[in-house]
Amino acid sequence: MARSPASRGARAATLSDVARLAGVSVATASKALNGRNHVHAQTRARVLEAAQQLSFSPNSLARGLLAGRSGTVGLLTSDLVGRFSLPILMGAEDAFGAGQVSVFLCDARGDAIRERHHVQALVSRRVDGLIVVGSSTDPRPPLVEGVDVPVVYAYAPSEDPADLSIVPDNVGAGRMAVEHLIACGRTRIAHISGDRDYSAARDRVVGAEAALEAAGLEPVGEVAYGTWSEGWGRAAAGLVLDRHPELDAILCGSDQVARGVLDTLRERGRAVPEDVAVMGFDNWEVVATGSRPGLTSVDMNLEELGRTAARAMFDAIDNEHARGVQTTQCRVVIRGSTAPVA
Amino acid sequence: MARSPASRGARAATLSDVARLAGVSVATASKALNGRNHVHAQTRARVLEAAQQLSFSPNSLARGLLAGRSGTVGLLTSDLVGRFSLPILMGAEDAFGAGQVSVFLCDARGDAIRERHHVQALVSRRVDGLIVVGSSTDPRPPLVEGVDVPVVYAYAPSEDPADLSIVPDNVGAGRMAVEHLIACGRTRIAHISGDRDYSAARDRVVGAEAALEAAGLEPVGEVAYGTWSEGWGRAAAGLVLDRHPELDAILCGSDQVARGVLDTLRERGRAVPEDVAVMGFDNWEVVATGSRPGLTSVDMNLEELGRTAARAMFDAIDNEHARGVQTTQCRVVIRGSTAPVA
DNA sequence: AAAGCGACCGAAAACCTTTTCGGAACCTTC
DNA sequence: GAAGGTTCCGAAAAGGTTTTCGGTCGCTTT
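^ inputs. structure came back:
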C-alpha cells in the first residue's frame, strides 16, 4: 500500500494540524472548510491550501458524534446469494451513495440469531436508518429489538402493518403479462407457474386470471404449480401440451420455467412465437437473452424498488414517515418469444 | 417503526444514564460493562441491570474516535451487477461479520470519478482497511489517492506489484479441467473459449494446454475464441463438429458457452456424456444444474477468495502485510456431462 | 477625537466512551 | 491502636469536530 507522502506514518492530519499550518484557530479552520461565512476570503484560501497540503480529511466519527447522526444506513439482507436482493441493494446503494450517506451491508444468511447480532451492531454504530431486504415476497416478522431508527422493509413486507414495506406489484405483473399476450392476439393461454408456497407465484396467478376475465377469456386448463426450475418447465409443458394441444400461449411463473417450456416446445416441433407465444417473469437478463428465441419477460423493476426504499428512508429520517405496504410498478420487456399472430 | 419503550423519543441512552441509574460513576459503568476487573460483583450486576433496563448500546462512534480505529472496512466494487463480485463480497462479509467488523459497501459502477468519491468518503469514515473488488481478472490501476489504510485487491489484481492482490487461479483451473477429462478417458479434446480480451479466458487456455502437453496429447483444432454467450457456444460447436467430428470432449470457456454447446450437440444427435463429454467454468449453479445433463464445471471458489481477502486484510491491519499476487485454488464439480468412457 | 458599527477571529463547550491514576474504605497483623 | 495491604471506585483527560458567543480590530460618522 502506498502511504501518502504528507502523512508520516502515524496518524492522519487533524483539523488542529490544518489550523496550525494556516496560522488560525480550529474554529476558523472549520468555518473556512465548511464554507460558512464570517471568514475573510484570504484566510479561507490559506486554510484550504493548508488542508490540501496535509491531505486533510475530516473525521466523520467525530462529526457524527457531535451531530448525533452518523450519515450511515444499514442494509440488512436475509439472503444475499439469492438474485433478488442484489438489484434492490444496487438501487438503494445508488440512491444513498449519490448523497453523503454510506451503506453498511449485512447478510443474515436467513438466520434469526445472526440477524439480531447484526441489528445490534448497526444500532451501536448509530445508523440513521435501516432497510431490511427479504429473500421472497412473503411477509416476515418485524425486527423485535428496541430499534430506535426508521426501518423500511423491501421485497418481503413486515407482518406488522404499522411498518413501512415496499414490495413489487406481482398482481399487476400477472395482469400485464396476460394483457400483453392478449394484445398479441392470443386467446388460448395456459399458465405454468412456480412454487405454490410463494406468494409471488400466487399473486401473479391472481393478476393473470383477473386480466383473462376482464377480456372475457377462459383459462386453458388449471394453473400448474411446481417448482421454479427448468426441469419443472420441461415436464409441465409436456403435460399441458398433451391435454390442451390447442393452446397458443404459455405464461410461465419465472424465466427459468420458461426456458424449460421452450425446450419442450422445440422438441415437439411447435414454433415459437408463430405457433405458441411464451412469457416469463423476472427478466433475468442472462436467462432471457440466452434462449432461442429471446424470452419476453416481466421485469419486476427491483432496482427501482431499492431506490424507492432508499427515498422512503430519507423521508423517514427527517419527517415523520409513512406506513403500510407500497408496491412498485413492473414492466414488460418484449423479445422474440411473443409476437402478434400472423 | 416501533420505538423502544425505554427511550422516550429523543436520544439513545448513554453511559452516563446507565451510571446514574446504577448509582456509580461512568468509569465504573464502563469497566463493568466491558468485563474489566476491579469491579465488585454486586456493583457489576447493578450496572448490567441498569444497562439492560435502558437498552443501552455503546456508541461505536465515540469508541472509535478514542481508539483511533473504527472497526469498519470498505468494500469497493467496480461492478456489483456482475455475478462475480457477489460471492466474493459474501465471503468477505462472512469473514468480517463473524468478528466485530462492519462493512461499508460501495459500488463505483465502473466509473473512476465515482470510485474516487467513494474512496474519499471511506477515508473520511476512518475505515481500518479497504478491499477493492474488480469485475474481471484483468489488472486494474491502483487507487491513487493518499489512502493511508491497508488495501487488498480481489479478483482484479492491482497493476502495482507492490500491492497485495488475491485472484483466482485460472491457469490451475484450466489444468484441472483437462486433467478431469483425461481421467475420464477422453483424448480428443476441443476447446471453445470465451472472449480473447479477457485474461481469464487466456489463462484457462494456458493451463489446459499445459495439461494436454503433460499427458502427451495434441489439442483438437485451434482454441475457438468468441464471446461469453450461449449463442457463441451454439455457433462454435457447429463449426468445431464439422471440422473435427472425431472429438470426444469439448472444454468450454464458461458455463454459458457450455449451455450453447450442449444445445448444438443434442440437435446433432451426439450423446452427452457417452459420445462427447462437456465441461464449463464458473460453476454457475442455476445454469449448470438447469441443463440436460447437469454440467460438470470448475468452481472458482470465489467465496473462499473473498474470505482470503478478508483475512489478508486482518493481517494487514495489525502486522505489516504481504505484497504481490496470490492465487486461490479452484475445484472441479462433477455432474452428468462428463463420465468415463464405457 | 470619541463613539459606533461591522467584519473577522478565537476560546470553550459539547458529543460519548475508555483508561489511567489517585484516593477511599476496609481488613489484617503486630 | 497504628502500619500496611487489598479492594474497589471516581475524577479527569483524551480523541476530533462543530457551534456559540464574546472579543478585537479597523473603519466611518459626527
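Chain A has twelve helices and eleven strands. Residues 14-16, 26-27, 30-31, 34, 36, 58-67 of chain A lie near DNA strand D (CB under 10 Å from a C1').
thumbs up if we can close this ticket
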